[in-house]
Design brief:
Helix content: 25-40%
Largest sheet: 7 strands, mixed
CATH class: Alpha Beta
Oligomer: single chain
Strand order of the largest sheet: 3-2-1-4-5-9-8
Order of helices and strands: HHEHEHEEHEEEHEE
CATH superfamily: Vaccinia Virus protein VP39
Structural class: alpha/beta
Strand content: 25-35%
Length: 217
Amino acid sequence: MMQTGHESEKNGDNRKQHWEQVYQQKTHKEMSWFQENPATSLAFLSACRIPFDAEIIDIGGGDSLFVDHALKMGYRNITVLDISGAAIERAKARLGADASKVTWIVSDVTAFKPEKKYDFWHDRAVFHFLTLPTDIDRYVKLVSESLNDEGIFVIGTFSEKGPEKCSGLPIAQYSEPKMTRLFSSGFDKIRCFEENHVTPSNKIQAFLFCSFKRLAA
């Protein structure tokens, strides 16, 4: 059945309420996706030779430590987007004075309207929470329209070996062929690989990471 715009908007409102509650009830180290050192995500910055003055956006960055490490590496133009205002405030408090070096946006990614284009779009563990076809289509279009020519898109989702639910919500699992088909228009795939993430409670979650380059128009 095709979802209407109203249904998609309602789903977004429900997502926001859910994540505000999650971030008010758990510390960042209790989140299943927590990483003290997000080494895989950071490695893409070096592997793709992202310059230090590049415009970077971390989708669903919340209070993850990706932004902390990216700042320490020397990146200067970082935007963090998250659906939860509570998550953003926690990240700001943790960074202290360095928080002023970051652009913070509270928004559901499917409602996000960028005011500029980016050179590096990073999403670890947001996309797989979008299960409505309309939301998935919006996301794919948003990435395409928000990246500069030859910009890099990096995405980490649960693989087909991963869990079917996370944080009490259903998720969508992805394989390399499925992800490649989704971003076949306007993108050139760089690489995909699977990786296991060990959660703070010592559970194994199977992830798929893929990187793409935005083709020149």
